[in-house]
TrEMBL record, chains A, B:
Organism, as annotated: Panicum virgatum
TM spans (from-to): none
Record-linked Gene3D superfamilies: Anticodon-binding domain (3.40.50.800), Bira Bifunctional Protein, Domain 2 (3.30.930.10), C-terminal domain of ProRS (3.30.110.30)
Boundaries of every Aminoacyl-transfer RNA synthetases class-II family profile domain copy: 19-258
InterPro entries noted in UniProt: aa-tRNA-synt_IIb, aa-tRNA-synth_II, aa-tRNA-synth_II/BPL/LPL, Anticodon-bd, Anticodon-bd_dom_sf, Pro-tRNA-ligase_IIa, Pro-tRNA-ligase_IIa_arc-type, Pro-tRNA_ligase_II_C
Biological classification of the source: Eukaryota, Viridiplantae, Streptophyta, Embryophyta, Tracheophyta
Catalyzed reactions: tRNA(Pro) + L-proline + ATP = L-prolyl-tRNA(Pro) + AMP + diphosphate
Protein name, entry field: proline--tRNA ligase
Entry EC number(s): 6.1.1.15
Length: 461, 461
């Protein structure tokens, strides 16, 4: 899927990754166009002056900003930043474009690259210095409209993870410490990787409130002729989503791809024996691929003659193709094909006459099974705790911790300080919307003060 | 379509431009996938060391390269370049990925942004410091395969210009002076803007020969077990294509968009008179838009109540929408709609029953008419000349000059030097594949030596 590049933290996305990215993009772009989002492309560059306008925002991003200072052999008059995100690139123009309530809502989306020159461990997909994403930026007349959109988009992110990538996620709200720099509140979908015991932020949908509107003077004349500030959102998901999927489903044999995002859903492999009619086998393989492609599946044929069938099985298992079809002399004689599932290794013979319908059923089953299995594994990691001792034990056991919390920033800072170590500190992942009952008198696991909510805690990527 | 940005030479692409870009991309991407091109994404950044490997190449691009030297407050150990094009980004990995003839052909394409920090006059779409493009990079075992692909891609570029943007172009080959830095030969599609009398390069398809293969050590083992160097191509078209279209078709009233790329092909405007049944009119408008959209057209409705129909006519004319449909009380009574063409202002009443078929015919006619008109205007500018005097006169008259040429680099340099001036020097645009007869004894217009070919000359963008 990727190739390491000679600049640390940069990776080459190869077709197997890009084709997944294109499938996700096709779904998401169509959905947001239904919501009247319009495509834009704003520049890669932003001046220092504009970048620094929103103080909390720049504090969050400043250490990671890459600066262009030279072109050819000339020094630039002033350094120019490469966008780490585009709030400051876009909002001076929002201020210009929005005059009246009739200009609202303004709903922009762009697909682009951004650069965050991070110094912590770079990891392909998960933490890279350049990544691809979509970023939506919207402005509304009222907070109600903004609030509503935050959740509409969050639901699309949930669908990307659960319906396409088969990765279970929790929708929730970020703590004050973990929210977007400069925003009002942040919602996210959070995944969890059982093997490493770490949470991972899947995508975020922020309500920016009126903070940026104030700094960038984005106001409109309302229906009564008075000037008001707009309410804004921004939201994004990135190529990281592919990495979360890889970590969730991969096994000893390599990748396991959910059918809905697999660039090849069915790989067909001829299995000729000595003296068998190779031409007839090849013909049956070609006709199988043709039939499947005509029915809307992504099927391909591996006819390479310099590799054995066994080598090909391993190769396509490693690449995670959901279904393998083998066709040998016996299959030919019996008018059937042998189908092997990548997710559980199950083998089944299908009559050629039922090919399309049975493949459809199998792919749907694999898609559902991957999500179900991942959810069971994730759920088995959730540990409800009440005390600091239970918390540290659960953390050591790499659990996804659900704990009653007083919701105070100082307490989260304190938990971070007390859990610092080689593996990284614990922090809040999110406060899930789906809240268990919180009996009166429940105390915060960390501060002993009255708890206000259940929050997920753990180490994270 | 665009908004000026506070960094010179950078522009914001607004939805009206991005939607055109998406339509072009949809066509082109599907076509190259038929040719087995695979999607990749290579990093934005390239190290100085790698960028400088191919000497001619870096000489061509060095003055325009933007350099990142800082991240946060730290100086980088070595400056890192932003890609002006991706040959040097990709080819070290081609060297790694290509081992055997079985790895060929390798065919990569990416859609991305590139940066060329030019200092000549920035112009929206035409000359900007950051632009969007696709870049295809391919490697073959033989020159024949590479040559063939160069022309396949050039034909797709011709189709983008002539079939989508309705801009007539000439296919041809660039002179040695004008070819791609580091390549073997360059083909291009060239357009011409009659108003300014300048040629403009529409897109280029380069055969790189084995120059880069040598520098980046891209070799393969052939079927006989011997090592050979690959043959490479690279080819690209950019958001400039939208600018060429704007300059070709625009008139006093604003843009004129060819139907195949118009984000809105038909705008429907209610024309209520005093006392007319506004509800019925609005209903008829909605049903018209619905019917057209259901039939696959891109139609929209302008129901804004704070603008008059006349204001809306001008607005959508300025935006270049190919067809306007007006529906007033008389249309309602007669079960018809009034249709107005943007390209020639012609008005026609269409029975509601024939809406879909007549709109289809009209859009096809507009598409064909725009290309035909542009071709007539372009052809009227072509002047065949034989002498230096005729050349300078034609140049002063802003003509597209077709001249017999000896094909010597020194002579092109000399023509450039002799025509230097405020308007810029003349140069070769291309040697068209479609060559008129060149009678024996024809002399070069500039050097007086025997002419080898007919070439287009002129000032250019």
């Amino acid at each position: 899927m990727i190739e390491y590049y000679d600049i640390s933290g940069c990776y080459i996305l190869r077709p197997w990754a890009m084709e997944i990215w294109e499938l996700l993009k096709e779904f998401f772009d169509a959905e947001i166009k239904k919501l009247k989002l319009k495509p834009y492309y704003f520049p890669l560059f932003v001046t220092e002056n504009v970048l620094q306008k929103e103080k909390d925002h720049i504090e969050g991003f400043a250490p990671e900003v890459a600066w262009v200072t030279k072109s050819g052999k000339s020094e630039l008059e002033a350094p120019i930043a490469i966008r780490p995100t585009s709030e400051t690139v876009m909002y001076p123009y929002f201020s210009k474009w929005i005059r009246s309530h009739r200009d609202l809502p303004l709903r922009c989306n762009q697909w682009c690259n951004v650069v965050r020159w991070e110094f912590s461990n770079p990891t392909p997909f998960i933490r890279s210095r350049e990544f691809l994403w979509q970023e939506g930026h919207t402005a509304f007349a009222t907070k109600e409209e903004a609030d509503k959109e935050v959740l509409q988009i969050l639901e699309l992110y949930r669908r990307i993870y659960e319906e396409f990538l088969a990765v279970p996620v929790s929708k929730g709200r970020k703590s004050e410490m973990e929210k977007f720099a400069g925003g009002l509140y942040t919602t996210s979908v959070e995944a969890f990787i059982p093997n490493t015991g770490r949470g991972i932020q899947g995508a975020t949908s922020h309500c920016l409130g009126q903070n940026f509107a104030k700094m960038f003077d984005i106001t409109f004349e309302n229906e009564k002729g008075a000037r008001e500030m707009v309410w804004q959102n921004s939201w994004a998901y990135t190529t990281r989503s592919i990495g979360v999927m890889v970590m969730t489903h991969g096994d000893d044999k390599g990748l396991v791809l959910p059918p809905r995002v697999a660039p090849i859903q069915v790989i067909v492999i001829p299995v000729p024996y000595k003296d068998s009619d190779t031409t007839a086998i090849k013909g049956a393989c070609e006709s199988t691929v043709y039939t499947l492609n005509e029915s809307g599946f992504r099927a391909d044929l591996d006819t390479r003659e310099n590799y054995s069938p066994g080598w090909k099985y391993s190769h396509w298992e490693m690449k995670g193709v959901p279904l393998r079809i083998e066709i040998g002399p016996r299959d030919l004689a019996n008018q059937q094909v042998r189908v092997v599932r990548r997710d559980n290794g199950a083998k089944v013979d299908i009559p050629v006459a039922n090919l399309v319908e049975e493949v459809k059923v199998l792919l749907d089953e694999i898609q559902a099974n991957l999500l179900k299995t991942a959810k069971e594994k994730r759920d088995a990691c959730i540990e409800v705790i009440h005390t600091w001792d239970e918390f540290t034990t659960a953390l050591n056991n790499k659990r996804l911790i659900l704990a009653p919390w007083c919701d105070e920033e100082e307490v989260e800072k304190d938990v971070k300080a007390r859990t610092k170590g080689d593996l990284g500190a614990a922090k809040t992942l999110c406060t899930p919307f789906d809240q268990p009952e919180l009996p009166e008198g429940t105390l915060c696991f960390a501060s002993g003060k009255p708890a206000k909510k259940w929050s997920f805690w753990g180490r994270s990527y």
